[in-house]
From TrEMBL:
<dbReference type="Pfam" id="PF16691">
    <property type="entry name" value="DUF5062"/>
</dbReference>
<dbReference type="InterPro" id="IPR038316">
    <property type="entry name" value="DUF5062_sf"/>
</dbReference>
<protein>
    <recommendedName>
        <fullName>DUF5062 domain-containing protein</fullName>
    </recommendedName>
</protein>
<dbReference type="InterPro" id="IPR032036">
    <property type="entry name" value="DUF5062"/>
</dbReference>
Length: 87
């Protein structure tokens, strides 16, 4: 997968929005002590379960690829003209 120019910032935004979605969905609540890795996995799996993103192949399911999927997901959610929107 080709890394996006602003992938780190997009992942940070995806985790912020994903945590809100996670809580509103009733899946739980993230604590300040939860690692970024755990948050990435939890948000990714919930989005896959809800059909909002396509699942990775089992042999491709790792943190790096999950981060990329979350970056792509949040980029599609951003309004036109947003600084992180890569057009």
């Amino acid at each position: 997968m080709k890394k996006h120019k602003h992938e780190a910032e997009l992942v940070k935004e995806a985790l912020k929005i994903g945590a809100i979605y996670f809580e509103k969905r009733g899946a739980g609540k993230f604590e300040a002590t939860d690692s970024a890795s755990n948050k990435i996995t939890a948000v990714y799996r919930l989005l896959v379960k809800d059909g909002l993103i396509q699942a990775l192949a089992k042999d491709q399911e790792n943190e790096l690829n999950m981060r990329h999927k979350l970056a792509l997901w949040i980029e599609r959610q951003l309004p036109d003209g947003h600084p992180l929107k890569g057009k």
